[in-house]
# Entry
Amino acid sequence: MKFYDFWKKYKGFILFALSVVVLFLVFLIDNHIEMLQTKKNYEVQIEDLKKLVQVSNIGKTPEKEFDIYQTAEDFLVYYYGVSKDISAKYRSEKLEELMTENAYAEYGQTDYDNTLNYTVTLEDIRIFVDYKNSTKESVFACIFYDENIDWPEVNTITLKKYWLGTLVFDPSLDKWLVSEITDCQELLTREEFNLLNTDTNGSTLENIATEEEGKNADIKKKE
# Structure
């Protein structure tokens, strides 16, 4: 009778408490499933990025022995950014500090005009080192970032891009400098890449490569 009386007296509270526990468990399970899905999606994206940019370590934690990160980020901001607060002369001086002499001579003299009433800012800069192609003196880097282009009274245009290049260590200055720009372009999905590179007969570069491999295999068999 005591349990019945207790149940009768606190039934509402017990049912409420049980419902809260059940909802909490459902939330935990749903959150766990979502985390697993996010992890899976991230791994798929990483594999796609590896195919696109051909670097070996994307997705791994950067090693601090290659302390290129501040130089690389500053270089990107000054080289690809546009701001009314940064003059062409100041930009040129900063790039000269961030690049080797040869690199500055080859890449540093780019046009820069901050009087056109638009700005370009960089966000979400993620820097990775390709360890297989790097040494303590020369580092091959892969950098992903968002490029935001702002015109007055126009919605911000955001492009996802990646940059490939090399930085070398200058012992006389005790710092890293950009020595080469290998590539810099918009980051495309495999579908977008194939669409942009579709040949006149409707075949993508990916399919063409596969077809060529098949033809070569047939020729070898005949031989």
In short: The CA atoms of residues 61 and 81 lie 27 Å apart. The first strand starts at residue 119 and ends at 129. Residues 200-223 have pLDDT under 50 and may be disordered. DSSP finds six helices and four strands in the chain.
